[in-house]
Design brief:
Elements: H1 2-22, H2 29-49, H3 55-78, H4 84-106
Helix pairs in contact: 1-2, 1-3, 3-4
């Protein structure tokens, strides 16, 4: 259940970033306010996942999924660069999250 909470927190974190982008630097108030609510919800879900999961792994996975998710949405939906070097480094973030998860299951 904790991993489901963590994945949900990460998905909401992605939504938060997209809403803050849509706020256009707070020129549009409603997306910004919804982004703040999403950020609070993400932290709430993360806090509940931390009841069970190791803090270092949970936080790294939460930020990693958020970072990779926002980067991929930027590439797919917002026309941001998909340069090979950028994709390589996104892959390194994914490899780090997988590595942490594998190490935690062995401990």
């Amino acid at each position: 259940m904790a991993w489901i909470l963590l994945l949900s927190a990460s998905a909401v974190e992605i939504a938060m970033a997209l809403l803050l982008k849509a706020s256009d630097g707070w020129a549009r108030i409603w997306p910004g306010l919804m982004g703040l609510v999403a950020g609070g919800a993400s932290i709430y879900l993360l806090a509940h996942a931390l009841k069970t999961l190791p803090m270092g792994t949970a936080y790294a996975v939460w930020t990693g999924i958020g970072s990779v998710g926002v980067a991929l949405v930027g590439i797919v939906a917002l026309g941001e660069s998909a340069a090979p070097a950028r994709l390589f480094f996104i892959g390194l973030v994914v490899a780090g999250m997988v590595g942490l998860r594998l190490i935690d299951t062995q401990a």
